[in-house]
Amino acid sequence: MPVVEPSLTLERRLLREHPILICLDEVGRGALAGPVAVGATVVDAAAARRRVPQGLRDSKLVPQKRRPEVAERAQAWAPASAVGWAESTEIDEVGIMRALGLAASRAIIAACADAYDASAALVILDGNHDYVSAVHPGRLAVRSIIKADRDCASVAAASVLAKVARDALMVDLSPAYPAYQWERNKGYASLEHRDAIRACGLTPHHRSSWAIADAPTLF
């Protein structure tokens, strides 16, 4: 099956009605350890007229070795971008969906900074669940789009930025907790990770509210 190349078709149409788009995608929702990350890209009409960065795809479709260079091109293409985080302790305290909303809010604030008015934007969210409005009820216009990370270049850019940032964080955390092999599994439920949890218990970076010792292997 051929790989679908993301385009800016939808973004160009939506920018006829909105001055800017803030495009979001999350990484780490299903991990057992580490934070959840939400990437945000701000796109305006000028950016939507430029060519899609070379090699840009949904982060799951970009080979791991190529992701950093694709992320660099995506960051250079977007007028503004950021990655927002919610830590494992926050996930335990408020639940994963609320934590995604917190991470998204932090990404939006960082990406807009003093240069863009988020209240004037349309937020494009990958998936079918709006986790942004729960944190900003009535303050932001949000549109959830299934497969936006596959079809919309701006959301694919957010996906790659978040994936590269979160993977790098898990690699950096790994030497302090070598048994869990986070440099390989990035906190997801690999067989080795589950075995280490059974043998060594949970670290401060695990989502301790989750019943994770017997979580199914994801890869």
From TrEMBL:
<dbReference type="InterPro" id="IPR036397">
    <property type="entry name" value="RNaseH_sf"/>
</dbReference>
<feature type="binding site">
    <location>
        <position position="26"/>
    </location>
    <ligand>
        <name>a divalent metal cation</name>
    </ligand>
</feature>
<keyword id="KW-0479">Metal-binding</keyword>
<dbReference type="Pfam" id="PF01351">
    <property type="entry name" value="RNase_HII"/>
</dbReference>
<keyword id="KW-0464">Manganese</keyword>
<keyword id="KW-0255">Endonuclease</keyword>
<comment type="similarity">
    <text>Belongs to the RNase HII family.</text>
</comment>
<keyword id="KW-0540">Nuclease</keyword>
<dbReference type="InterPro" id="IPR022898">
    <property type="entry name" value="RNase_HII"/>
</dbReference>
<dbReference type="InterPro" id="IPR012337">
    <property type="entry name" value="RNaseH-like_sf"/>
</dbReference>
<dbReference type="InterPro" id="IPR024567">
    <property type="entry name" value="RNase_HII/HIII_dom"/>
</dbReference>
<protein>
    <recommendedName>
        <fullName>Ribonuclease</fullName>
        <ecNumber>3.1.26.4</ecNumber>
    </recommendedName>
</protein>
<feature type="binding site">
    <location>
        <position position="25"/>
    </location>
    <ligand>
        <name>a divalent metal cation</name>
    </ligand>
</feature>
<feature type="binding site">
    <location>
        <position position="126"/>
    </location>
    <ligand>
        <name>a divalent metal cation</name>
    </ligand>
</feature>
<dbReference type="InterPro" id="IPR001352">
    <property type="entry name" value="RNase_HII/HIII"/>
</dbReference>
<keyword id="KW-0963">Cytoplasm</keyword>
<keyword id="KW-0378">Hydrolase</keyword>
<feature type="domain" description="RNase H type-2">
    <location>
        <begin position="19"/>
        <end position="219"/>
    </location>
</feature>
<comment type="function">
    <text>Endonuclease that specifically degrades the RNA of RNA-DNA hybrids.</text>
</comment>
